Amino acid sequence: MLFWILIHLVTRQSGVTQGHPDLLVRPSTAAVCDCKSNSCRTLFDIIWGCLATLFACTWVALHQNVPGPDLGHFALLMRKLRMMLVTIIAPEFVVGFAARQLLSAQRISKEFDVSKTHGFFCTMGGFVSEEGHPVSSIKQLPAYMLAIRKIKKADIEDKSKGDALSKGVAIAQGLWFVTQCLARISQHLPLTELEVATLAFAVLSVIIHLLWLQKPLDVQQPIVVARSEVEIDPLQEEGITPIKNRFHTLWQKLAGAIGGEHNEYPPFSSTSVPSFYSIEIGTKGTHTLVNLAGVYGVGSIFGSIHCAAWNALFPSMAEMWMWRISSAFIAAYPVLTILLMIPLGAWAQDNDIAAAVLVSFMLFGFVVYPLCRLFLIMLSFTTLRSLPPSTFVDVNWSNYIPHL
């Protein structure tokens, strides 16, 4: 509800773009802010504040799974850059990933009487067997739990590159940016499209940080644990669900990518877990449902925040409609996908036509969605070339904090 109130307030404060095309032309950025009666900010201040927040929302917020052995510094850098790119294009996927890992850590903590930090370390591939394979499923854990319990929580936290203070600073950065935007709305000062886009990232960043608050950050080396007397059936653990035809194959892969399923991941022949891997939460349906709620629910909120700039002043009609169409698609596509998957999801497991419909719709979204995200990113910067003078008026904080 708070997200929709925020969107309503931002929409109200935006200028009107409908009507004669000339109304879309902004005043020149050369307009001078009246610093005698208002504090001012520059275009550099706007861009720097947004980029600093975007960096905190992407690079700093990422808590990756433990990488494979013997990766060089360049390979590790490229691995994080790839995940950063995913976060920029589709941050809701990272939110769904973080939500799955939190629930996985809670399940491990409850079932095996260990800390959530132990649970996170399990689901991120932090524990490996003496053969070098990750202990990364509920079926494996009983055989290694005796050794895992002997490892202190402090020893796991010592491997983390971030503590509660550094994570708190990143959360504070996101909350401060949100506060600034709300203050501008309260004082009827316009937000740039770049600030609206950054606001969407800031909201999701705070959610991601809170979900991963107890997850170790940037762990490079796993901890080796020994197996106890409990036996594991490798064939049962490796079991892969057979897939019938090409439509079902593609549908399973697409649903697995979104639903966080890793049916084809073999822990007994791997040296690390996949980048977006998390231990199963419960039943397969529960695992998928939680991830879909995180991905599509947050995705709709992310697009809706961009829709808050629906009535903002744009330099041209083309840019206005590109922003409107892109933000509306990002907000509506997750809802339409859920509405389509409710009647066809179970049917698609056995029916070729239902599987083909879902595959076609999801492939359409996988192509158009990144394009819409790229359009919004591009427009966030191109629209900075022409801003109204009131954009450069800074927030008067003395309205909220006397004698400031």
Automatic annotation (TrEMBL):
Superkingdom of origin organism: Eukaryota
Membrane-spanning intervals of the chain: 43-62, 82-103, 194-212, 293-313, 325-347, 353-376
Keyword Zinc applies: no
Keyword Transmembrane helix: yes
Signal peptide annotation: 1-19
Keywords: Membrane, Signal, Transmembrane, Transmembrane helix
PANTHER family: TRANSCRIPTION FACTOR DOMAIN-CONTAINING PROTEIN (PTHR35043)
Name under which the protein is recorded: Oligopeptide transporter
Taxonomic placement: Eukaryota, Fungi, Dikarya, Basidiomycota, Agaricomycotina
